[in-house]
Amino acid sequence: MKSYFKLARHEGNRMLFDLVEMSIISTYCGEAFHLHAEGVRGAGKTTIMRAARDILPKIRRIKDCIYNCDPENPHCPVHRHLGTEEIQSLGIEEIPMPFLEISHSAKVGTVAGSIDLAKITDQVKPQAALLPGIIPQAHRGILFIDEINRLADTSPEITDILLDVMGNKPGRLQIEEAGLPVVEIPITVSVWAASNPDEEPGPLEEVRRQLSDRFDMVYYMGRAGSVEVVAQMLLSTRKTKTGVDAEEVNSANAEYRKKIVEMARMYEVAEMPDYLRDFIARMYVKHNLESLRAVEAIQQGAILYSVLHKRKQVTISDVIDMVPLALKHRVDGDTFLKVTNSLTYESPRKRILNLLGRKQETGEAGSAG
């Protein structure tokens, strides 16, 4: 697989790179940020998302905890009742942030959890226990689903599980097995998905609108539009086949991880100015938007976007850039156009020049009178 930092960036995919890095920053800080990349087959959606595994930072967990318990906030059935000293005695370790995938052949037990057959058949000390599935093992990390529109169409049970996991932040997962007590655990996982809306069964918002609404941002990825970019992509593919410089790749990935941790620290203290929060709230009320998740996503996205671009404060342009990504899958076409047309952005410099121009015209009109 191509290294993340070697992937070609162009106008059609640049925002997806930004969204992926924003989601990693947010996930590292303990807050999910769900992404859905749409686009034609072969555009590179899944390539970018899977390659991002290279730049995932390390997280601290209780040693050998398959649920990835944070030592400062244990949540799993095994560790959530332990005190600080007991956790310290178990030990703490660093692991790469989890990155797991749900395949279309996955079963409910594989995704959520099932009976641990190894423990129940232990001849020395048999015991009934649960084996956590893909989702609880992805806690504090990334969960990737390719062709999510097809999964939503063919696996309604798994879709229902995703609705619970993505419904709130943190989400909720309930594991049920006959003969065992029901286990409910909080889950913080960022779901990344990819799909081609032009292929069967169609766009996710038409297949399962509830699931589509759970994604904070949906981005339609465009093709590379210049000869230079396509040529660069071909060269990169050729170099990958003939071998890569492992030292260069490791160094670049380490630098990415370092930057992500630094930006995560910025995000933890970043705030949305009141006037911008009021701006988002007015948009919600004025256009009668149904989903409160939409404006929550705009706020979270704008803060992350400003941090990614190393701005000390969120700007109106950060908010405006997030609006189409948060709304296109949640509102009808007419509402989308009304909202976006009402958000034409002028730079502060342009507004000042326009104001000066109007004052000058008023002064000249007064003199003429």
UniProtKB/TrEMBL annotation:
Enzyme class label: ligase
Molecular-function GO terms, alphabetical: magnesium chelatase activity
This enzyme's EC code(s): 6.6.1.1
Name of one Pfam family that matches: AAA_lid_2
Swiss-Prot/TrEMBL keywords: Ligase
Gene3D superfamilies on file: Magnesium chelatase subunit I, C-Terminal domain (1.10.8.80), P-loop containing nucleotide triphosphate hydrolases (3.40.50.300)
Membrane-crossing residue ranges in chain numbering: none
Domain ChlI/MoxR AAA lid, chain residue ranges per copy: 280-332
Classification via InterPro entries: CHLI-like, ChlI/MoxR_AAA_lid, P-loop_NTPase
PANTHER family assigned: MAGNESIUM-CHELATASE SUBUNIT CHLI, MAGNESIUM-CHELATASE SUBUNIT CHLI-2, CHLOROPLASTIC
Name listed for the protein in its UniProt record: Magnesium chelatase
